[in-house]
User: Fold this.
Amino acid sequence: MEKNKASGRKYLRYFLIFTAAVVSVALVYTSIAYMIKQTELTNRFTKRDFGIELLEPQYDLLPEESRNNLVPNDTVTKDPKVKNTEDTDAFVFLKVTVPVAEITKYVDPYNVDDPPTKHNDEIFYLKTTGTSLYGLSNVFNNTPADASDNGYWVELTGREEGTDLSGETRTYVFGYSVYLTPEEESETLFDFVQFKNILQYELDPDDDIHIQVDAYGIQADYLEGINKNNGNNKAIMTQAQLNTIFGYILS
Assistant:
């Protein structure tokens, strides 16, 4: 049993499992066939696996013990981003699935006007470097001010599931605002995970608690209604455009 020095409370350690995968990636090749007749042109489409890599560089450096054994209010580095390993430009996406449980967040037990209550909630916060540990919300690299000229993540709220927190998981879906050139990497979506400061014994320490990250990619050319460039620069995709592109991947 571990002791939280800040509050003097004792906590059970929980075993956290992080999983990551590259899924549902697709490349649509378009080749224009020879003109059989002057007015006849045929487009042929084929599909194959597309080369992207899901990276978590700082997380991969952590010892196994530091990755998986947490007490409430602990943090652990987790820094997902995507690399384009294909030889063509690509739009990329990330889906994060976080666990939901009936918990009581231990915020201020002495506030009699607003005592903590037990309710369904996500078990973790997902945060970026420099974010306060006392903040009670997720913080993503999802605004232009937070990211470099390389791009930023745009949340696709219409593609997310479990947002009413009535089930066992809740998903977040993000698309990257610009395409990645070959060998180019995105910014991280977030940089660390914080276990919410829950009351003791509300979770079974023998349960496996999963956070899963899935990466998706599709080539940036030949997508109907999508112009990847704005003059000589990469075009900044809107939420609606990224939602359309993600739909091509799922179809």
Observations:
- The chain has one domain: 2-250.
